[in-house]
Design goal:
Blueprint lengths: L1 H6 E3 L1 H17 L3 H28 L2 E7 L2 E3 L4 E9 L5 E7 L12 E5 L3 E9 L5 E5 L2 E6 L5 E7 L3 E6 L2 H6 L24 E8 L11 H7 L3 E7 L4 E7 L7 E2 L2 E2 H18 L3 E7 L3 E8 L4 H10 L10 H11 L5 E5 L5 H17 L1 E7 L2 H8 L5 H26 L3 E5 L4 H16 L1
Parallel strand pairs: 3-11, 14-17, 14-19, 19-20, 20-21
Antiparallel strand pairs: 1-10, 2-4, 4-7, 5-6, 5-9, 8-11, 9-10, 12-13, 15-16, 17-18
Helix pairs in contact: 2-3, 6-7, 6-12, 8-9, 10-11
């Protein structure tokens, strides 16, 4: 009985019909005919409710299942599918309510459908997460009613599931075509002739006629009592590191996504392409300290390793200390590498404070600094002012935009490669810059 009480719900239609009953009784106070009609109305309504109750709770059987991926892609539309099966011999109207994770703050989710006897139907909808992390889907509720629609029966299905929201896997796959080695021909860069070559040790082998005498390994020759030489192979791969600023500069949101999450999505897409081009890729997170490091590697498992570390990034949004970053890079990354630094500067003064450390990093490595345009400032700059206050606002916006361009000029003047990009174009611009660097050095 307790279970039946929890399943039974009165429909809005029944409340409307019940509301008509006191109106008829009130009219019956003045006209006796309406008083008699009210009793017939009450008895008829009771019979209909009883018939609806018997049909609904004795014949109607529903089954529902939610299908979704184990991993969601951050900032992308992720598909969810609900399959509803009517196992009974009567037609039913169904209202489906899914317990969506609290992160979406969606409290009005409801899907209405009509199911014929012994039939099924699918409901498809999409969710766009804006934060990485663990999302919990709750139960799936179906409120069924017959054609009379006076009462409803709730069918609840235990479909609880934990979904991990990872950096944008969808965007990573969309950028896959950049991994083709034919892409570099589109840029038209002139190949630079290298003086000398970089060699990577492969093995020690016996000397044969034609081997370079300079590669003789004298220790192995003495042990084996025959000439042994070192065999090398050309090292075509390059070490690439994505440096992610987790400081307060990256907290600014655009379209519900922080600059840090834009950078994380870009890092994942670049990692996928660089690994397919046989480069070694690593990453690190920093702010007031370096909190996460993945050494550059070209193994097949590297993409998954970097993806897991990007998923686990928890920014502290502290003041970014580039001095600590420089000291850590000098101590840890000894081989000359391509460093892609994701950060942001809103004012020229903040860049000038860090310029000394950026130049020092660029001296030991090839540095590409990525910072962002402010979309809201751009919109304000392009707006038409209608009063004095708005004129001041547009003037300030114009000054901020010019400061961004001036920062770009200062960086390039000091020999530092830089990308100033809107957040939504970050991935394309960074990948194009990577391909440009590869084309010039190949």
């Amino acid at each position: 009985m307790k279970k039946l009480y929890k399943q039974l719900f009165l429909s809005p239609l029944l409340f409307y019909l019940i509301f008509g009953l006191p109106v008829l009784f009130l009219m019956g106070f003045f006209v006796p005919f309406f008083y008699l009609l009210s009793w017939y109305y009450l008895i008829g309504l009771g019979i209909l409710v009883l018939l609806d109750f018997i049909t609904l709770f004795s014949k109607v059987q529903l089954q529902a299942k939610r299908s979704l991926a184990d991993k969601f892609s951050n900032s992308d539309a992720n598909d969810i599918q609900i399959n509803i099966v009517n196992k009974s011999d009567v037609d039913v109207k169904v209202k489906v309510i899914d317990e969506i994770p609290v992160q979406f703050q969606k409290r009005d989710f409801a899907k209405h459908l009509f199911l014929k006897a012994r039939s099924n139907q699918e409901i498809n909808y999409q969710l766009v997460p804006k934060k990485r992390g663990k999302y919990i889907f709750g139960e799936l509720h179906c409120f069924a009613s017959t054609k009379l629609g006076l009462i409803e029966s709730r069918f609840s299905f235990e479909c609880e599931k934990n979904v991990m929201v990872y950096p944008s896997i969808v965007q990573m796959k969309e950028m896959d075509f950049y991994a083709s080695h034919k892409i570099k021909s589109l840029f038209g860069f002139k190949r630079v002739r290298r003086i000398g070559h970089t060699l990577e040790f492969e093995q020690i082998k016996e000397y044969v006629v034609g081997d370079d005498m300079r590669t003789i390994n004298w220790k192995s020759t003495a042990k084996q009592r025959q000439l042994m030489v070192n065999q090398y192979q050309d090292e075509k791969s390059q070490d690439i590191y994505c440096l992610l600023d987790g400081g307060k500069n990256m907290k600014m949101p655009f379209n519900g996504l922080s600059l840090l999450d834009y950078s994380i999505n870009s890092c994942l897409a670049l990692t996928n392409i660089a690994l397919k081009r046989k480069d070694k890729v690593g990453m690190l997170q920093f702010s007031s300290r370096v909190s996460r490091l993945v050494k550059a590697n070209s193994q097949k498992s590297q993409l998954r390793k970097i993806m897991e570390n990007l998923y686990q990034i928890t920014p502290d949004y502290a003041m970014t200390d580039f001095a600590i970053l420089y000291a850590f890079i000098r101590r840890t990354i000894t081989k000359r590498s391509l460093l892609i630094l994701y950060t942001n500067f809103e004012h020229k003064v903040s860049l000038e404070r860090q310029l000394l450390y950026l130049k020092a990093i660029d001296k030991k490595h090839e540095l590409i600094l990525v910072f962002f345009e402010n979309d809201e400032v751009e919109k304000l700059r392009k707006s038409t002012p209608s009063n004095t206050n708005e004129i001041y606002d547009v003037s300030i916006a114009e000054d901020l935009v010019l400061q961004k361009q001036e920062m770009l000029y200062i960086l390039r003047k000091n020999g530092i490669q830089a990308i100033l990009t809107p957040p939504e174009e970050l991935q394309v611009n960074v990948i194009n810059k990577y391909l440009e660097v590869k084309a010039r050095s190949s």
